[in-house]
Amino acid sequence: MFSELHFSYISHHNIITIPHPLNMNFKTVVNTSYRDIPVEEYFDGSCPKCGSLALGIRSSYKRTLLDLGAPQERRFVRLKVNYFECGTCDHPFSPKHPEFPSKLEYSPSIIHYVLERYHRDNISGNKIADVLKKSHEVDVPVDTVYSWIKIHSAEYLKAMEQEKIIDHPESIKTVTLDGTFTSAGSD
Length: 187
Prior knowledge:
The chain has helices spanning 108-119, 125-136, 142-164; strands spanning 6-11, 14-19, 31-37, 55-70, 73-86, 92-93, 174-177, 180-183. By secondary structure, the chain is an alpha+beta fold. The chain has a domain at 106-167. Helix 1 (108-119) crosses helix 3 (142-164). It is extended.
């Protein structure tokens, strides 16, 4: 129905249809992309108990987490997880990725997006969940959005305050506000 735009005009009682040069595609096809994270990216290869490099893989699998998508693109993070057994001390273990805790169902970028929209843009959790679903192809329950806001807001706001601190205010000599120059120190 909307797959092509056409211009129509009447010439000698005939209707002539000329395709629009842009030929916009309004189909709702959603592409899927994956970002793979191998174990080697977050694990140094040594036993945490004895430091041995003689390791055997007991089992492995890939954890798939939703990532912040884009219009008509659904993105995932695939995290390779291995269960190792040390050949020296027989210690079984599984290395943990520092950015993707084992209970995490969504990428940290989604949680950061929620906090940015809530605190910087003053958007409600309901609206954030709606925008995530419609614009980023991520279906997050509203309760989860509000849980993230409750759990992570203090840490987020503390980080935002640290961003505002200027290390060397004496290096600022002139400030301009709305085109008016004001001296903030000796020029």
